[in-house]
Amino acid sequence: MLDKNQIAQRIAKELEDGYYVNLGIGIPTLIANYIPKGINVILQSENGLLGMGPFPLKGEEDADLINAGKQTITTLPGSAFFDSAMSFGMIRAGKVDLTVLGAMEVSERGDIASWKIPGKMVKGMGGAMDLVASAKNIIVAMMHTNSKGESKLLINCHLPLTGINCVKKIVTNLAVIEVTTNGFRLLEKAPGVTVEEIKNKTEGKLIIEGDIPEMNFASE
Amino acid sequence: MKKVFKNAEEAVHDISDGSIIMLGGFGLCGIPENCITALVKKGISGLTCISNNAGVDDFGIGMLLKKRQLKKMIASYVGENAEFERQLLSGELEVELIPQGTLATRCMASGYGMPAIFTPAGVGTDVAEGKESRIFNGKKYLLEYAFDADFALVKAWKGDTFGNLIYKETARNFNPVMAMAGKITIAEVEELVQPGELNPNEIHTPGIYIHRIFKGSVYEKRIEQRTVRK
Description:
The structure holds two protein chains of two kinds. Chain A is built from five helices and 13 strands. Chain A is α/β, with parallel strands linked by helices. In chain A, the strands form two sheets. Chain A has a ten-stranded mixed sheet with strand order 4-3-2-1-5-8-10-11-12-13, with helices on both faces. By secondary structure, chain B is α/β, with parallel strands linked by helices. Chain B is globular, with a radius of gyration of 18 Å. In chain B, 50% of the residues are buried. Chains A and B meet through helix 3 and helix 4 of A and helix 4, helix 5 and helix 6 of B.
């Protein structure tokens, strides 16, 4: 079973040199810590920055320089600032190569629910709906089951949707799963996890073909 | 051209009950702090505020909310303000949550003289309810209308007396598109200079969009999530 950092580490292996990437709040932000050596990835912050860098050192925090989660950040050489219309323009026009976000539920058709629990949590969707409606490649980073042990990979989402038919890949604490036109397809299992366990914890249709390899964390 | 005002109180003098107001900012970054304080002091009510977020309980738009000056909020995320989420869930406050990109682009549409735009954000979700849609190149898009705001309150780093503005870092965010969209745009700046002191190549918002400008008397620039690395 993987922890949050390991989920982030596995998703970081999907990054390619020159990629423009948007990382959502939560587990996805950890991916910035695991960008493979030797490749250059430019992080987009939806509030108007390309080239987001690490958090500042204590005493160097700048109130005018924050990320989408309202945290103080720095910039890297080659960064650029722009306004919110341009930010979502570049997202909608498909210039961002990869979007990674968390979710509460994903359906076997790639629908995603990530923004609202009616009557309990209505914080708003922020930029999530724009991202999932437009991104070329969307990976969801989440736990395989919720706090009650129920599957988060469903036949149909029950919670209000963020987007439809959009998720391409899911990386959970148990598995790497591809979303195909035929349902979920198991690609990799986490160390110490059996295919049986993954099957039992996936409510949606799960295609299992051949030997399922274990996730590889060794650096190339 | 008399665009320069002495302070926030004078700049917002004619904003009255029931006004529709756009406010720049993302979280607490780049918010028109002095105008908000002046509106709280004025005590006007029944306001409709269009802004990405709702501030926190005791700063930003949250201050207007605390004093019950808001009738309606149009935003994309109100999660940092517990009182907001509570008023939303209880029905005390009318809230319209819209995708952040739609919010930005509806402001842009106003400023660019376009009555409406098409966007894929929200297709298949609650956001699509009651809205017209159209298919372009096999993909579905929702019809969204340009905003109609009485006032736009924006914050910039530097401005000159013609209203030309330059923004700083991520404090830019919604300010440029809201500046273009207001029927009356009021800009507050940290530094107010004479025409000619700002390089024309570096202007982010040309002064044609700005009706009133003043130098803010105080900027707290509160940090919402102070985060450092070891």
